[in-house]
Amino acid sequence: MFQGETAISVDDKGRLAIPTAYRDQVAQACGNRLVLTYNPFEQGCLWIFPQPEWERVRDQVNALPSVKAVHRALQMKLVGAAAQVEPDGAGRILLPASQRAAAGIEKRAVLLGMGNKFELWSEQAHLAKIRQTIGEDEVSEDMAGLRL
Q1: 126-145 burial, b if ≥16 CB within 10 A, otherwise e?
Q2: I need a surface site. Which of 15, 62, 117, 134 has the fewest CB within 10 A?
Q3: Cα–Cα separations (whole angstroms), residue 135 to 14, 26, 138, 142
Q4: Which CATH number is 105's domain given?
Q5: Cα separation of 71 and 131, whole Å?
Q6: Hey, is 113 helix, strand or coil?
């Protein structure tokens, strides 16, 4: 279970270091085999899955009938763009240049542990998202039952 927010630096080669607090969890969850892909729902964000969790998501997405354009778009953004990455000896993973560019990730990023996966946000997109509040009219029935 991944959770927490970490400011991350991306080096000139497009590598970022997995925070030491997560390295053992990543090794146990997937033997250091991670999959990086687009977040199809939010701009400025990539998803990083442990391999077993990725396979579950991939299979669900690929099972959608491709006759619908929205299904094909989801398949393209998730499965078509998926890149397998493994931390090197220094715990760094290489972010594909095309994905960095599409998400606007440059020198600074934010890594969020989101339970079954990580979200990697551009610093600007993360700041903009965090500054947005959830309005009363946006609260779903599921959210209304939460005891926060």
Answers
A1: beeeeeeeeeeeeeeeeeee
A2: 134
A3: 36, 35, 5, 15
A4: 3.40.1550.20
A5: 31
A6: strand
Q: Which two tokens stand for residue 70?
A: 């929205």
Q: Which residue has the tokens 């779903």?
A: 140
Domain assignment present for residue 145? The answer is no
Q: Which domain holds residue 55?
A: 2-133
Residue 143 lies in a domain: no
- Cα–Cα distance between 52 and 34 in angstroms, integer? 9
For residue 85, the surrounding DSSP H or E stretch is: strand 83-85
Containing H/E element for 130? helix 123-131
Block means of pLDDT (10 residues each) for the chain, 148 residues, are 96 96 95 97 97 98 97 97 96 97 97 97 97 95 93
The answer to whether residue 138 sits within a structural domain is no
104: left (phi over 0), alpha (psi -120 to 50) or beta: left
**How far apart are the C-alpha atoms of 6 and 113, rounded to whole Å?**
9
Take residue 72 and report the two structure tokens written for it. Answer: 């094909």
In a domain, 140, yes or no: no
